[in-house]
Amino acid sequence: MAYKTDIEIAQECELRPIQEIAAKAHVDEKYLEQYGRYKAKVDPKLLKETDRKDGKLILVTAITPTAAGEGKTTTTVGLADGLRRIGKEAVVALREPSLGPVFGVKGGAAGGGYAQVVPMEDINLHFTGDFHAIGAANNLLAAMLDNHIHQGNELNIDPRRITWRRCVDMNDRQLRNVVDGLGGKSNGFPREDGYDITVASEIMAVFCLASSITDLKERLGRIIVAYNTEGKPVTANDLKATGAMAALLKDAIKPNLVQTLEGTPAFVHGGPFANIAHGCNSVMATQMALKMGEYTVTEAGFGADLGAEKFLDIKCRMTGLVPDAVVIVATIRALKMHGGLNKKQLENEDLAALEKGIPNLLRHVSNIKNVYGLPCVVAVNRFPADTDAEIELLISKCRELGVNTILSTVWAEGGKGGEDLAREVVRLCEEEKGDFRFSYELDETIEQKISDIVTKVYGGKDVSFTPEAKRQIRDLTKLGYGNIPVCMAKTQYSFSDDANKLGAPEGFTVTVRQVKASAGAGFIVALTGDIMTMPGLPKVPAAEKIDVDENGVITGLF
C-alpha cells in the first residue's frame, strides 16, 4: 500500500483562516498580527488583560529515541485533536523546527501523517523569522564584543577567555572551530572562535524562558560573554548591547499561532534542542495556551531523561508550572531496537528483543512516577507489523508499574486515533493527584545536582569530572552561580553519555568535561561525553530531496 507523504497530506488540507483559529482559542483579533492568511503572532498583552483561568497542562515525552522513530510530536498533535473530538477545548504548544535537522536527518518536524501542524512548509522553513532574529541578536553581541577589544578594550577583556560564540541555524561542522580577525590590524584581533547552531545559543534559552520584554532585557543583560584579566565576568550589560539585542527580538518574542490539520489552535514558538539546551517551547507560548484552553498539550524534546527532566527541573522550577499528567510515547519497533534488534528486522515478531528493550520505557515511566511524582500514561504508536503478542507483553510490563498503556493511531487517523488516549489523559487529570517534586534541590552543590540527575534519572552509578570541569565548577561557585539549576548536554540516544549503550544500561559513569554558566538563562550547562553544540550534516542530507517547482510547491520535505 502506497502511503502519502507528510507534505502531501499537509498540502491537501483546507486550512482555516487564522482569525477563525484565534476565535477557537478565545484570542480577540485586536491581539493578532497576521503573517498572511494562516499564521499570526499574538500580542503578549493578552496575558495581562485576560481574566481566563489556566487550564490543565499535559506534558508529552518519550522513550530514548532510535532510528525507528517514536512520534512524540505526532502524538502531541493527535492527542490535542482527540481531546477536541471528545468535547474538550484543547490547545497545542510546540517548539519551532530548526533548519539544521530539516536539511539534515529528520526533514520536516511539525508532526506526521494526519496529526500535523500547518502550514508545515512555512513552519519548517523560516516561519515568522524568529530564529533569524535570535541569530542576529547573538551575532550582534559577538560583533560588539570584538569591536570593544578592537577599539581599546576598556573593560580589559582577556581575549583568551572569551566564551561567547557566533551562531547560524544550520548543521555546519566546518564552523565548529575557526580563527577570525585575520588580515591585519584594521580587521580585528586574531583569535580562535567558533559557531553554535542557533538553537544552542543562550539567546534561544533566554528567549524561551523570558516572561515579558522586561524579563527578556534583564536576562539578556546578565549573559556572560568573557572574563577580564582579573577573572571577573564581562556581561552584555557591560558592553551596552542589551537594548539593541532586545530591539531585534521585540517581534520575535510574540508567540506564533497556527493550526493542526483538524483546526486545533497551536502555539509554535521557540526551539532549543533538548540534548544541548533545555528543549522546551517558550514560557510565554505555554502560558498563553494555558489561558486559552481547557487542556494544553505540550512536548519536551527527545527522551524523558533530557526534555522532560529539563522541563520539570528547569522550566517548571522557574515558572511555577506543574503538569497535571504526563504522556510517555513509545513504539514496539523502537523498543525492539533497544533490545538489540537490527533495524532491518523490525517487521518480524521478536518477543525476546522486545522484553530486553522494555526496561528503557520502564525506567522513563518510573522516573516520572517515582522521581517526579506525576501521574502518567504510556502511548504506544501502533505500526501494522506490531503483533498482538508484542502489544500484550508491553501492556503487562507497564501494568506492573501501575501505568495504563493506550494504543494510538493518530498518524493514520488523526484525532480519531487519539480519542482513547485523550480519555485516559482526562481521567488522570480528574482522578489522580500528583505529588510533584524536583530531582535535586537548588542549595546543593553543582557536583551534587549533576550526580542526582545521573543517579536518579539516568540510572547511572557515578559522575567523573575532568580537571577542567572541576576548576570551572570552583570558579562558578565563587562567582555566585552555585545555586541555580543544571542543564545537562548529553547524547539523546542513551541514558548514559555513550550513544551505543541502548536499553536501560546500569553501572555506568558519566563524564563531565566542561561546565559553564548561562547566566541569562539562569542555569549551569554541563557538557558530557562528546556532545557538540554544532551538529554536522549526514552523508546523504535530507536537503538533497527537497525541491520547489515554478508554482512555489515544495516537495521532499517528508
Can you walk me through this structure?
Helix content is 36%, strand content 19%. The protein has 558 residues and is an alpha/beta fold. The strands form six sheets. Strands 1, 2, 3, 4, 5, 6, 14, 15, 16, 17, 18 and 19 form a twelve-stranded mixed beta sheet that branches. A four-stranded mixed beta sheet has the order 20-22-23-21. β14 and β15 form a beta hairpin. The chain is globular.
By DSSP, the count of extended strands is 25
What share of residues are in beta strands? 15-25%
**Helix proportion range:** 25-40%
Alpha carbon gap, first and last residue: 18 Å
Give start-end ranges of low-pLDDT stretches.
Answer: none
**If helices are DSSP runs of H or I spanning 4 or more residues, what is the number of helices?**
19
Give the overall average pLDDT: 94
Class based on secondary structure composition and strand pairing? alpha/beta
What integer value in Å does the Rg equal?
A: 23 Å
* Biggest pleated sheet: 12 strands, mixed
**Overall body shape:** globular
Compile the SSE list and pairings:
Layout: H1 6-12, H2 18-24, E1 32-34, E2 40-42, H3 45-49, E3 56-62, H4 72-85, E4 90-94, H5 99-103, E5 111-112, E6 115-118, H6 120-124, H7 130-150, E7 157-162, E8 166-168, E9 178-180, E10 191-193, E11 195-197, H8 202-209, H9 213-222, E12 224-228, E13 233-235, H10 242-249, E14 256-260, E15 265-268, H11 283-292, E16 295-299, H12 304-319, E17 325-330, H13 332-338, H14 351-371, E18 376-381, H15 388-400, E19 405-408, H16 410-413, H17 419-431, H18 446-458, E20 462-465, H19 467-478, E21 486-489, E22 509-518, E23 523-528, E24 547-548, E25 554-555
Parallel strand pairs: 3-16, 3-17, 4-15, 4-16, 8-11, 17-18, 18-19, 20-22, 21-23
Antiparallel strand pairs: 1-2, 2-14, 5-6, 6-14, 7-12, 9-10, 12-13, 14-15, 22-23, 24-25
Helix pairs in contact: 4-17, 7-8, 7-10, 9-10, 13-14, 14-15
